[in-house]
Amino acid sequence: MKILVINCGSSSIKYELLEMEDEKVLAEGLLEKVGEKASLLSHHCQSGALKINRDIASHEDGLELVVQILMDKEKGVVKDASDIFAVGHRVVQGGEKFIDSSLIDDEVIQAIRQYQELAPLHNPPNLAGIMAMRRLLPEVPQVAVFDTAFHHTISEAAFLYAIPMKYYRKYALRRYGFHGTSHRYVAEKAAEVLRRPLSELNLITCHLGNGCSMTAIRQGKVVDTSMGFTPLEGLVMGTRCGDIDAAAVLFLAEKEKLSFQEIGNMLNKESGLLGLSGLSNDVRVLEKAAREGNSEAALALEVFAYRARKYIGAYLAVLGRADAIIFTAGIGENSQSMRSAILKGLSPLGISLDEARNQKPEEAQGIITTEDSPIKVLVIKTHEETLIARDTLEVVKRAASAPGGGRG
Ligand code: ADP
After folding, report:
1. Do residues 145 and 391 lie in contact, with contact meaning Cβ atoms separated by under 8 Å?
2. What would the pLDDT profile of 231-250 be if each residue is shown by its tens digit?
3. 3 vs 63: CA distance, rounded Å
4. Which residues fall within 8 angstroms of residue 373, CB to CB, at 6 or more apart?
């Protein structure tokens, strides 16, 4: 059974086609600069790689091209639409309604549209992808998998901001948390590696990529997460500031006469590692510069590590006891020096890093702590598409077996 996973960003489309028998990726690709001149599609499948430069005006046009390539008579990996069991869509904001992945119907579309207000940068392209695929493959069931859903178990004490309650009631303004599929994927994988059921494990999962977030998981369920109402809060990120005193933002707005949009741009796109270093949002670039004596690059990395360490401390207190800490995404998976900097000095809290293992996590199934470390630290490669595909399969099968259900 083949599942197509679609992740539509504001100007990009990522996709993967998975064979669910063995979760093998049959084809994958990325279409960049959708809506701009000279969009670029990079496609990979068993028969080789393919690059196409073409003006793609919309997500619908982009997905039409993707479907054509997947079904190409010579190089395609599916015969026709009936060969695709279902399509799974990443949707960033599912609000308080979606606590699980959902089969897409008109009502679900209406709710995703309603949540555009909460995620104006993300939900509109997600929805554009859904609408396009419904038109392109009308017979194929579509499933929405929400970034926020894994975090629905967070209690009021952890999700409320201490501002007048009327704003929560009026706008559902609260912490939602994001990267849920990644946190869930690595939590499930950690349970496999540790050979214990997830429902018994207390974990801290650290997704450190361009966007960064940390999640505290008690007995398999999320109790807190660092991103908030939007993906701006929490850890220092590539270009996002993470936690900041709201009054500092008001101060700057007044002094610099910044509009709401300019403030939003500055905090989301010009801050974080990029803002601090004045050089780059890429940890690889900053690590190299720091080695060559660039003190601002070194400081930016230190601020990043310090914030992450502080959150680990907070989440250890929230959980009371932790079995493992998991590092994932671009920085978490690849930067041994960042992992080492974050975990520095934490042995009194039960975390003893094994530096040799930290250099080569793959040699001990990703475990990078010493044998006797009370809390294990694991490096696990995230693969959100696998989880989206698993959920999609399950949701469609469940719907088909429900009374009156059928494929479609
Ligand atoms: P996204 O959140 O966009 O999916 P990724 O998870 O791919 O991003 O993370 C991208 C970031 O990972 C890069 O900006 C870079 O900072 C970091 N990164 C990737 N490879 C390495 C590496 N070998 N060493 C250090 N950092 C890396």
Report:
1. yes
2. 999 999 999 999 999 999 99
3. 15
4. 350, 351, 352, 353, 354
Residues pairing with 377 in the sheet: 325
Which helix H or strand E contains 135, and what residues bound it? helix 123-136
Task: Give the pLDDT score at 120.
Answer: 87
Could you give the dihedral angle defined by the CA atoms of residues 255, 258, 263 and 267, in that order, rounded to the nearest 10 degrees?
A: -50
| The predicted structure's pLDDT at residue 5 | 98
- 147 has catalytic annotation: yes
CB 122 within 8 A of CB 179: no
- 64, 368, 59: which is closest to 206 by C-alpha? 368
Which residues on neighbouring strands pair with residue 119, listed in sequence order?
A: none
Element (DSSP H or E) covering residue 186: helix 180-194
What pLDDT score was predicted for residue 369?
98
**Per-residue pLDDT at 408:** 44
User: What pLDDT is stored for residue 65 in this prediction?
Assistant: 95
pTM above 0.90, yes or no: yes
Considering the candidates 55, 72, 105, 147, report the single residue annotated as catalytic: 147
**SS3 state at 78:** coil
Determine the distance separating the centroid of ligand 1 and the alpha carbon of 176, expressed in angstroms.
24
Indicate if ligand 1 lies below 6 Å from the C-beta of 334. Answer: yes
Residues of the chain with pLDDT under 70: 405-408
DSSP-derived letter for residue 348 is G
